[in-house]
Specification:
Length: 111
Protein backbone atom coordinates (compact mmCIF):
# COMPACT_ATOMS: atom_id res chain seq x y z
CA UNK A 1 0.00 0.00 0.00
CA UNK A 2 1.65 3.20 -1.17
CA UNK A 3 1.61 6.67 0.25
CA UNK A 4 0.03 9.50 -1.74
CA UNK A 5 2.03 12.61 -2.59
CA UNK A 6 -0.25 14.61 -0.27
CA UNK A 7 0.41 12.21 2.60
CA UNK A 8 4.13 12.41 1.93
CA UNK A 9 4.10 16.22 1.92
CA UNK A 10 2.09 16.23 5.17
CA UNK A 11 4.64 13.86 6.74
CA UNK A 12 7.54 16.05 5.55
CA UNK A 13 5.82 19.11 7.05
CA UNK A 14 5.33 17.30 10.35
CA UNK A 15 8.96 16.11 10.36
CA UNK A 16 10.15 19.66 9.63
CA UNK A 17 8.01 21.19 12.39
CA UNK A 18 9.10 18.59 14.93
CA UNK A 19 12.76 18.62 13.88
CA UNK A 20 13.03 14.90 13.16
CA UNK A 21 16.57 13.58 12.75
CA UNK A 22 15.49 10.34 11.11
CA UNK A 23 12.94 9.59 8.39
CA UNK A 24 12.13 6.11 7.14
CA UNK A 25 10.24 6.12 3.85
CA UNK A 26 11.04 2.53 2.89
CA UNK A 27 8.13 0.60 1.43
CA UNK A 28 5.95 3.64 0.79
CA UNK A 29 5.61 3.00 -2.95
CA UNK A 30 7.32 6.28 -3.84
CA UNK A 31 8.26 6.99 -7.44
CA UNK A 32 9.44 10.53 -6.74
CA UNK A 33 11.04 12.17 -3.72
CA UNK A 34 9.68 15.74 -3.69
CA UNK A 35 11.95 18.79 -3.42
CA UNK A 36 10.17 19.60 -0.13
CA UNK A 37 12.54 17.06 1.45
CA UNK A 38 14.92 20.02 1.59
CA UNK A 39 12.87 21.43 4.49
CA UNK A 40 14.21 18.71 6.78
CA UNK A 41 17.34 20.55 7.85
CA UNK A 42 17.71 18.48 11.05
CA UNK A 43 17.71 15.16 9.19
CA UNK A 44 20.67 12.86 9.90
CA UNK A 45 19.33 9.58 8.48
CA UNK A 46 17.08 9.12 5.46
CA UNK A 47 15.95 5.61 4.56
CA UNK A 48 14.44 5.11 1.11
CA UNK A 49 15.04 1.38 1.04
CA UNK A 50 16.36 -1.21 3.49
CA UNK A 51 16.92 -4.89 4.07
CA UNK A 52 14.04 -6.23 6.14
CA UNK A 53 15.65 -9.59 6.74
CA UNK A 54 17.96 -12.10 5.12
CA UNK A 55 16.51 -15.23 3.62
CA UNK A 56 18.57 -18.25 2.72
CA UNK A 57 18.02 -20.06 -0.54
CA UNK A 58 20.48 -22.75 -1.64
CA UNK A 59 22.54 -21.80 1.39
CA UNK A 60 23.08 -18.30 0.05
CA UNK A 61 21.78 -15.21 1.82
CA UNK A 62 19.28 -13.16 -0.17
CA UNK A 63 18.08 -9.83 1.15
CA UNK A 64 14.36 -9.31 1.52
CA UNK A 65 14.00 -5.64 0.74
CA UNK A 66 11.54 -2.95 1.75
CA UNK A 67 12.04 -0.34 -0.91
CA UNK A 68 10.49 2.17 -3.33
CA UNK A 69 10.44 2.78 -7.07
CA UNK A 70 12.66 5.85 -7.13
CA UNK A 71 14.56 6.59 -10.33
CA UNK A 72 16.28 9.78 -9.20
CA UNK A 73 16.79 12.02 -6.18
CA UNK A 74 16.10 15.75 -5.86
CA UNK A 75 19.03 18.17 -5.68
CA UNK A 76 17.47 19.50 -2.46
CA UNK A 77 19.05 16.57 -0.60
CA UNK A 78 22.36 18.42 -0.97
CA UNK A 79 21.04 21.19 1.28
CA UNK A 80 20.64 18.77 4.20
CA UNK A 81 23.93 19.53 5.87
CA UNK A 82 23.37 17.17 8.80
CA UNK A 83 22.49 14.16 6.63
CA UNK A 84 24.99 11.39 7.33
CA UNK A 85 23.26 8.20 6.23
CA UNK A 86 21.27 7.74 3.05
CA UNK A 87 19.98 4.20 2.55
CA UNK A 88 18.85 3.51 -1.02
CA UNK A 89 18.78 -0.29 -0.92
CA UNK A 90 16.68 -1.90 -3.63
CA UNK A 91 15.74 1.23 -5.56
CA UNK A 92 16.33 0.68 -9.26
CA UNK A 93 18.16 3.82 -10.25
CA UNK A 94 18.98 3.78 -13.95
CA UNK A 95 22.09 5.76 -13.07
CA UNK A 96 23.78 6.98 -9.93
CA UNK A 97 21.79 10.06 -8.92
CA UNK A 98 23.81 13.26 -9.20
CA UNK A 99 23.14 13.93 -5.53
CA UNK A 100 24.92 10.74 -4.47
CA UNK A 101 27.92 11.26 -6.74
CA UNK A 102 28.62 14.73 -5.33
CA UNK A 103 31.53 15.02 -2.92
CA UNK A 104 29.47 14.32 0.16
CA UNK A 105 30.33 12.81 3.51
CA UNK A 106 27.51 10.28 3.20
CA UNK A 107 27.94 6.78 4.55
CA UNK A 108 26.55 5.36 1.35
CA UNK A 109 24.52 2.24 2.00
CA UNK A 110 23.65 0.28 -1.10
CA UNK A 111 23.56 -3.22 -2.44
Amino acid sequence: MGMTQDELLALIDQAAEEGWTELDLAGKGLTVLPPEIGKLTQLETLTLGKVDEWEYSDGRPTPKLITNELKDLPAELLTLEKLQTLNLSGNSFGHIPTVVSKEQEFNKVSD
